[in-house]
């Protein structure tokens, strides 16, 4: 009899599982939760706060999510990776996978495209400089005039960080790209990018109080996104909250 046992580094395995255990989502597939009173037609399906030790550990969590989606999505039994490739120009991994449902008589198999972008594509010193500049220009004024019920210390600095990352990438382009932010929410990211000279707009199902307070006015549209009829001709599609735009 041949021995086909596989040696496992228990120390590394424990670190991997400890990192993954921090991801403890709440699921609302059976009893949908409202996102807010101002958006009665939207529902939260999965809710989670994600924390991680290091970039290396985070990448391990992403690998686990790709290869074992049943740990994240209860309706999924497993997945089959159909193809995996690396972009020639930037540090980007492109994956096509098939999701196999548990309820095979009820749910159809889904094909899903996954794009993994590494922050290594952004020069850290450049990013830090852009972030410091945006923080100095916008942070204090936005905090003082924040009209939403949400915590400004979270959303303002989060969107400043996202804008800094995007601007860092776009700075290498010969021509400034256009963008659309799907599910733009408070519109802050669109406001920052518009103020920095980038042409684009945000779409959300309902407007927010803060939209009318932005000066100058960003391009924000209150509208329902219909997948089969909405036409987008922008260079970049931003989906900071794209998880709220899918059925599961």
Automatic annotation (TrEMBL):
- Principal localization reads cytoplasm
Q: What is its EC number?
A: 2.1.1.211
| Pfam families to which the protein is assigned, alphabetical | AdoMet_MTase
Q: What UniProt keywords apply to this chain's record, in alphabetical order?
A: Cytoplasm, Methyltransferase, S-adenosyl-L-methionine, Transferase, tRNA processing
GO terms, biological process:
tRNA methylation
Output the Gene Ontology terms for molecular function.
Answer: tRNA(Ser) (uridine(44)-2'-O-)-methyltransferase activity
Return the GO cellular component terms, semicolon-separated.
cytoplasm
What is this protein identified as? Answer: tRNA (uracil-O(2)-)-methyltransferase
Q: Specify the species.
A: Smittium culicis
